[in-house]
Model the fold of this input.
Amino acid sequence: MKNWSRLQLLTHILCWLPLFVLAAAYFTNNLTINPIQAATQRSGDIAIIILLASLAMTPLHILFNLPQLLKLRRPLGLYAFFYAALHMLTYTGWDYQFDFNLIFASIADKPYILIGLAALCLLTPLALTSHRWWQKRLGKLWKRLHQLVYLTAVLAVIHLAMAVKGDFLRLQGDIWKPLAATLVLSLLLVVRIPPLRRALSARHRKGRAVKITPGPVNRRSDSGLSAVTPEKQTETPNH
Done:
């Protein structure tokens, strides 16, 4: 912890905060009239938000040249897994008391459960192999394995879209969350398209290569002072 930057520390605080808020709402009887449903929905929403945040770190680095954001991908991914597991445990344990007969029966009416389970199953090996030891151990296979995070995010958004009550064709009902998640995920994936990613990365490399070029120096014989001609000065662009 002593080696954490302020940004890393802030990230951990923000990721733990929803759990404390959720627990406080439960113990103060403020978790709506249906606390089980509220806890299930909130934990699932938090998991998707943090998962999308972890996917946003690389595009933000590409767009704004912020390498410090890359260090946040692993903790954000682990927190996303934590809240996704909490979401599933809330549903299976708190709601259905681990009665798998009832759970299997509910899948017929709620097929989105299987999609959510598939997303959690894909996220599990990514969380288990997130440490650098696994990265060195698996080599190139590690990168291929962790590319499954994109499919995981797609499944998570589909799970959310199927779980809410609404009509997407008529834009009616509680559809704003899946629509927002779909838009964000689409933008994050578009930035990763190789030609666009290379173009954005090249822009930053070009910007870093630009140096301040001094203009001609004019010397005044009467005072011995020198001045740089303003119109000839080239400044390094800010990003």
Q: What stands out?
A: Residues 219-239 have pLDDT under 50 and may be disordered. Residues 6-192 form one domain. The two ends are 30 Å apart (CA to CA).
